[in-house]
Fold:
Amino acid sequence: MRCSGRQAKRPELRSIREWIGFVKFAVATFAILGTLDTKGAEHAFVTDQIRSRGHQTLVIDVGSLGKPGMRPDVNRVEVAKAAEVDAGALAAKRDRGEAVAAMAKGAAVILSRLAAAGRIQGVISLGGGGGTAIGTAAMRALPIGFPKLMVSTLASGNTAPYVGVKDIVMFPSIVDIAGLNRFSRLLLARAAGAICGMVEMPEPAASDKRIIVASQFGNTTACVDHARHILEAAGFEVLVFAAVGTGGRTMESLIESGLVAGVLDITTTEWADELVGGVLTAGQTRLEAAARKGVPAVVSTGCLDMVNFGPPETVPARFQGRRFYQHNPQVTLMRTTPEENSELGRIIASKLNLSIGPVTVLLPLRGGSMISAPGGPFHWPEADHALYRSLRAGLRSDIPIMELDCVINDPAFAEACARELLLTVVP
Structure:
C-alpha cells in the first residue's frame, strides 16, 4: 500500500480490513534516533524523506559531545535523564564509551514509553559503531513486530550482538555515514522508503490459536515437520525456530513472555556448541525458560551429535583429527565424542530438573540426526549411549523418559513426541 504525501490518492482497497489498516497508518509518526552532533545532516535528510510521504517524525538526539546538527524533538538532556545520568557531566567527561552506554540506556527507556503510548509507529536510526550500538540497544527494547530499521556501517558483518533476538532490519550504508553524496542520498532515501513501507503495510489477522514452539535443524526437519502437522491438526499454531543460536534464544524469550502453551524441543543441538566451542551457541540458559515457567515440554536430543563451524579453514587447530562432515561450503560439522556426550547428558538433565511443570524426555536410540543414523557419517552408537546413560542417571526420578528403537526422523518418533505433548497441553 502506498501513501506518498499530499498528492497521493486513496488506493483501491479490496476489503474493509485493508481500509482500516490504511486509515490507521495513513499518517504515522516515526522516531528518528541518532547522534545529531556528528550525523545531523544525514538524519535531517531521512526526516525530510519520511515527511515527503505524508508522515510525521519525532527526532531524538542521542549525541553527547558537539552541538546538534538539527533541532531535535527530544533532546540529549531528556535522554540522559531517562538513563539517570546528567548530560552536562557526561559531556564534560568526554568518555565515548560511557556516553554510548548512557545514551543507549536512556534511548531504550524513551522509545519504550513512546511505543507503549502509541505515539510512534516505527523507528529508524543511522550510525557507525557508536550510533549502531545506541540505536539497536534502543530497538531491542521494543516488541517483535514493531517496525525498526538501522542503517549501519556494520550491517554486513556479524550483526548478532546488535540484533539480539529482535526483528531489527540492518540496512548496509555501503559508504560511511559522513555527509551527503550521490550514494548516501540514494541509500538513505531507500531506507526511509523501507521503514515507511513496513508501517504502511496492514497487519495480517492475528490467530487466536494457542501457541506451541518447536526447535528444528536441517538434520531434524523431517521429524519436526511431521510432529508440527499433527499439532496443527489438533488446533494449535506451531512456531518453528532454527536451532542456530539466535533461534534458541528467541524461542526461550518467547516462552518467558507467557504466550506459549507448549514446547516441542526436539533439537537441543545448541548445547553441543556451547559446551565444545562451536559457533551456534544459544548461551547457558538454554532449556531453562519452559522449566522455570512451568510450560509443558517434550524434549529430545536432536543433533547433539554435532558441533557447528564455518568453512573448514575456520575449525580451530585443537580439533585436528576429529570426525568432520561438510554440510555445505559454509558449514562444517564435527562429531561429538562419548566424553562430550556424557557431559551434555549431565547438563541437559540439570536444566530439566528445574522444571515445575510437566516435561517428558524422548530418546531416539538409533540416532539423533539424519547423519548419525545407521550408515551415516556420524553414526557412533558408543557416543549416543554415553549421552543417554548420563541423561538417565541425572534426571529427577519423576521426569518420564521414553526410549524408542528408531532414528529421530522416523515418523513413529515424531508421532510419539506430538502425542506426549498433546497429553499435557490439551485441557
Summary: DSSP finds 15 helices and 14 strands in the chain.
